[in-house]
Amino acid sequence: MLKSIAKNALELVVLLVLSSAVIFLLVSASPIDPITSNYGQVAASKMSAAKIASLKEYWGVGKPVLERLAAWIGQVLQGNLGESLIYNEPVTNVIARGISNSLPMLTIAWLLSGLFGYALGLYSEMKRSKLSVKILDAFNFVLMSSPTYWIAILLLVVFSINLGWINVGSANTFESALLPCIVLTLSGIPVVFFHTKTKCKEILKSDYVAYAKTNGLNVKEIFKKHVIKNASFPFISIQFAQIAEIIGGSVVVEQVFSFPGLGYVTVNAACGSDVTLLAGISLVTCVIVFIGSFLANTITVLLDPRLKRQKVNNAGA
């Protein structure tokens, strides 16, 4: 276990360095002028040469990207993520505020999408011939093929604009987080649903299920004694892998609903060429995804004795 933790920690460090470098390179290669983008074309045209030079110095325009990257890494090693240029405050404060707004919504969406996807996947394989299962499969196919932003816009138009039932654009009310949470939940269900169905099919074709059938067990008993337990281990892995998908989906969803969470902040940082803030967000999200992956591996090993024995045998070899 200690070797696994050390290996994962090393992979995390490499991933953080590479992702930060890629973000710096991509944003630096962007044709967006940060001064015009953040202050407006009219305001920029009325600035004096001295003012423009001062702003270019502030935004790091013209500085070599590797020099800026090295300076930022040096700050991170000292426990400082730097200063956000567009928010004019420490990056840690901006990220903390975005996470505090997004975390409850993302957590609920992550839990609901996993539970519904797993339960519906089991039901779909248990009741194969029913019409409701065919409708359920078709519905999930539609959800999986529909872009997240399209689902978000559809719900926004129907429930907020046309019906006026839900107000959006604030992080201080449950109402404003409801539609983003529903969109993220719906977009996360199909992955778990089809993954669970596939695993159930494999289990039902196994020898021990065939033996259980010869002993007179019906479908419900087989699912209760064999399928649910054996399908839960891969479900845990795919569920924790969904953390990255939920965070990625929030970038689009929060922008559609003007929800001031971490995804909304990410888009503002990208549009405003705030490289320091983008790099800080990438660090935080990579750490979150890493923790989710580590928890998935650990929980699976603890719950499945076969994996415990396999790891012990590998260590002994």
TrEMBL record:
GO biological process, any: transmembrane transport
Subcellular location: Cell membrane
GO cellular component: plasma membrane
Principal cellular location given in the protein's record: membrane
Cited SUPFAM superfamilies: MetI-like
Membrane topology reported for the UniProt record: Multi-pass membrane protein
One Pfam family, short name: BPD_transp_1_N
Domain ABC transmembrane type-1: 99-296
Record keywords, A-Z: Cell membrane, Membrane, Transmembrane, Transmembrane helix, Transport
Family affiliation: Belongs to the binding-protein-dependent transport system permease family.
Protein name, UniProt field: ABC transporter permease
Residues spanning the membrane: 103-123, 135-165, 177-196, 233-257, 277-303
